[in-house]
């Protein structure tokens, strides 16, 4: 019986030690929470703001570890640099758990972490920078990104040559890559190159690596506002919002009343500014410029002028767009391209479909003809040579009695007082020109003709 009890106690001791023993490279959390943060889809500024919040909350509660669950094909270089800087500055150990892909900007972010865990079938690498249209970036940008990849690897004791080989096609690493290739490693290859710590089959193995239980995990999720900010700050969404916004406002100008296109246009701009405000980019100056631009455009619509208010309004809107943006040059270029595209589209619409709505208030489109009962003023050449008297002073326009009829006349020269004998010297359309003449014998100069 004693041997049985001793055996049971020995088994329990060994089992307890085996369960409690930390995994290789693991951090002893001491029962403190571990923050589990998703890093998925495109890397952009909205994601950087979300991760910043997660790290702040982890700091506030004294978390012992942060796990970034990664599955991304990359994204914005500026956002990746910001996230990498945040990871390096963290006093809390950071583990990147690569569930799917860690490509391009994702690879850079992972290299900054204390630990990298990968699932079977996951991959890391292929970090060559590219433009939005898919072309390889210029050599200056490639060199800049390569140096940052090297620095990220060196900061955690990883091979900087492997990191550089993910960016530079011309780099040759014997036994690893040939010239013209980019390094992209599977989970097994990454562990072999000491880029990743180990291969894990799922979350439970991550828990064992960190020596924590499921109850220690605090899962951080995107709030609705952060989801909106991530969507709006995407470089693929910004040009679309500008096109929709400008097109909606332009269509509203050319169609009767204020309706659906105007609402959509203003909504697109509102979404752009509100999303960038949620992401922390738009400040008070942005909304001051936006309000000024809208006021100036309204003045341009309702106050006759030479377009100065409209020009200032568009400049103010462009300034608001730039101050709200994380990448100001990209947003300004997108806005100008959208403005040009909208102008061309509206010119074609007016050219082939005609202008309607508010535009008709600026352009005279009605016509008067005989069929609708309009008759222009008839010529009266028979008035030439007839005499009369001015009823009012002519300065030079006024009224005179000619042929027994009151007529609107103008003097040929200077001022003619009332009651002065005049003679018609020219009739040009509805314009009757007169000049002074000497009164006929026996005519009273001061008595107008009636």
Automatic annotation (TrEMBL):
Limits of the NfeD1b N-terminal domain: 34-218
| Signal peptide, first to last residue | 1-20
Compartmental location: Membrane
Entry's Gene Ontology BP terms? proteolysis
The alphabetical list of record keywords is:
Hydrolase, Membrane, Protease, Signal, Transmembrane, Transmembrane helix
Keyword field contains Protease: yes
Record's GO cellular component terms: plasma membrane
Its placement in the membrane is given as: Multi-pass membrane protein
Which parts of the chain span the membrane according to its record? 228-251, 258-275, 281-299, 332-353
SUPFAM superfamilies, sorted: ClpP/crotonase
Q: Which GO terms describe its molecular function?
A: peptidase activity
Residue ranges of every copy of the NfeD integral membrane domain listed in the record: 237-350
Residue ranges constituting the NfeD-like C-terminal domain according to the UniProt record: 382-435
Q: Gene3D superfamilies this protein is in? A: 2-enoyl-CoA Hydratase, Chain A, domain 1, Nucleic acid-binding proteins
What's a Pfam family this protein contains? NfeD1b_N
Recorded hits in PANTHER family, A to Z, give:
INNER MEMBRANE PROTEIN YBBJ
Provide the protein name. Membrane-bound serine protease (ClpP class)
According to its UniProt entry, this protein's organism is Melghirimyces profundicolus
């Amino acid at each position: 019986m004693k041997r049985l009890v001793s055996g049971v106690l020995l088994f329990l001791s060994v089992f307890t030690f085996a369960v409690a023993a930390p995994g290789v490279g693991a951090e002893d959390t001491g029962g403190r929470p571990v923050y589990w943060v998703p890093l998925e889809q495109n890397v952009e500024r909205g994601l950087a703001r979300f991760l910043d919040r997660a790290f702040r909350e982890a700091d506030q509660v004294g978390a012992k570890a942060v796990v970034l669950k990664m599955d991304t094909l990359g994204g914005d270089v500026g956002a990746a640099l910001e996230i990498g800087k945040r990871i390096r500055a963290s006093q809390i150990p950071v583990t990147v758990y690569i569930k799917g892909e860690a490509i391009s900007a994702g690879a850079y972010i992972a290299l900054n972490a204390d630990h990298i865990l990968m699932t079977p079938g996951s991959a890391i690498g292929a970090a060559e920078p590219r433009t939005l249209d898919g072309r390889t970036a210029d050599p200056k940008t490639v060199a800049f990104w390569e140096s940052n990849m090297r620095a990220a690897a060196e900061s955690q004791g990883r091979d900087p040559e492997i990191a550089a080989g993910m960016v530079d096609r011309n780099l040759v690493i014997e036994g690893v890559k040939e010239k013209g290739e980019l390094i992209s490693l599977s989970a097994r290859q990454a562990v072999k190159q000491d880029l990743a710590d180990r291969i894990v089959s799922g979350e439970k193995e991550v828990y064992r690596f960190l020596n924590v239980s499921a109850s220690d995990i605090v899962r951080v999720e995107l709030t609705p506002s952060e989801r909106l900010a991530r969507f709006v700050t995407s470089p693929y969404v910004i040009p679309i919002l500008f096109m929709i916004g400008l097109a909606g406002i332009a269509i509203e100008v050319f169609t009767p009343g204020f309706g659906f296109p105007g609402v959509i246009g203003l909504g697109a701009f509102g979404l752009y500014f509100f999303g960038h405000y949620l992401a922390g980019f738009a400040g008070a100056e942005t909304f001051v410029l936006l309000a000024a631009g809208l006021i100036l455009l309204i003045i341009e619509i309702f106050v006759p002028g030479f377009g100065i208010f409209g020009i200032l309004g568009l400049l103010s809107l462009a300034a608001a767009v730039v101050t709200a943006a994380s990448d100001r040059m990209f947003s300004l270029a997108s806005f100008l391209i959208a403005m040009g595209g909208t102008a061309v589209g509206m010119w074609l619409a007016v050219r082939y479909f005609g202008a309607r709505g508010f535009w008709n208030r600026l352009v005279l489109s009605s016509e008067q003809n005989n069929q609708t009962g309009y008759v222009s003023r008839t010529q009266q050449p028979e008035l030439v040579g007839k005499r009369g008297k001015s009823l009012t002073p002519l300065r030079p326009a006024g009224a005179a009695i000619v042929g027994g009829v009151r007529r609107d006349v103008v003097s040929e020269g200077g001022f003619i007082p009332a009651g002065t004998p005049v003679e018609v010297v020219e009739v040009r359309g509805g314009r009757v020109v007169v000049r002074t003449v000497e009164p006929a014998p026996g005519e009273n100069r001061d008595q107008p003709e009636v």
